[in-house]
Each structure stands twice: as structure tokens, then as C-alpha cells.
Fold this sequence. Notes:
heterodimer; A: 110 residues; mainly beta; four-stranded antiparallel β-sheet; 12 strands; B: 115 residues; 0% helix
Amino acid sequence: GDSVTQMEGPVTLSEEAFLTINCTYTATGYPSLFWYVQYPGEGLQLLLKATKADDKGSNKGFEATYRKETTSFHLEKGSVQVSDSAVYFCAQRGFQKLVFGTGTRLLVSP
Amino acid sequence: NAGVTQTPKFQVLKTGQSMTLQCAQDMNHEYMSWYRQDPGMGLRLIHYSVGAGITDQGEVPNGYNVSRSTTEDFPLRLLSAAPSQTSVYFCASSYSRTGGGNTIYFGEGSWLTVV
């Protein structure tokens, strides 16, 4: 069935470091792909999305490119801030639902 | 425009009690759903609805009931709470019935503890 695999965390970085969080998916078709972010004690917010191969989603300095050939949607940011500390979820939209990865916690220290 | 509103935000229940988590959206979305979030397991779909009067089961429906009498509201009922239902619950909604790039919007979550 459809699934999403994310790298396990926590990912611990210093401020201004480069961030990559890996995400791969398995699907029967070509799903839309999403990254959601969850700040402590809050709900999920859409960070970015891509709906077809080679699309690049971007928001708040984060980017992810829909790679059909490697079935991946890795999240990147060139320079992280303390305020980016959160849990990041990769997801694909299949029939009637989102399929989520298990989440990756990012901890950024000053 | 409030988006997706869930209540209550926090609740403690005793085993065997019943309760209803409320969810309302003001975006005229056809699709609404409930997820639960557990450590190390991401979010899992409990039930969903593609319109008023239509509901269906997700991955983990046991112990939960839903109904959709209006477009705006999609309550989740726990008939007899069990400790295994301790979790964070998220309601979500979107325009599209059958997938695609339409964004699914989430409520702020309901933290439920069953003792």
C-alpha cells in the first residue's frame, strides 16, 4: 500500500546550519506530496507542497522537489533558525486521505 | 474565517466514559476527516466524510463513531473510552473529494487522556 518513510530524528543542528530531512514514498500513481510542520503544543500547518514530478515547493526558506525517479521529496533549508525547531511530517495524498511519515523532530540550538 | 475549529483542546476521561470531540469548519469544504497522532506512528486516519450524510472508515476506526449531518460539522464520538485511545486527535478538511493538490487544513488538536 501507499506509504511514506522519513529519516528518524531528532536532527540536532546549530543555528545557520544547512538542513536536509529525507522523505521517500511508495504509491501506485503520482500522488501530491506535502510537508507539514508541527510546533510544540500546536496543530499541523502546511509548509509546502508539490503536485507533479519536478515541481518544487517552497515556503519560509524551505524547499522540496518532487523527484519521481527516486520517489523522494526531501526537505531542505539553507540556514536554519532556532524558531524552526519543530516536528516535520512528510505526507502524500492518496485516495481520500493523507498518508503520513512518522515525523522528524528538528532541534536548533543558538 | 476561523478555518477548522476543534473542541475541547484538553480532556481527561475515565475508562468506560463516553465523549464527543467537536469539529467545525467554515470553508464550505466537502471533505472532512479525523486523525489520531501517537508517538513514533505519525498520524493515522480514523474516519472521513466526503459530504453531508456520507462517512467511511479509515485505518483505525474501532472504538469511534462519526456522523455528518451538515457540511460544517463532523463530530467524533468515543462510546466507551479505553486507555489505548489516549492520543492527540486532529480534525482536517479540504475542498477535494478524491485527492489531488488541494490542501488539507488541520485543526489545532485535542489532547485526550483516558485513565
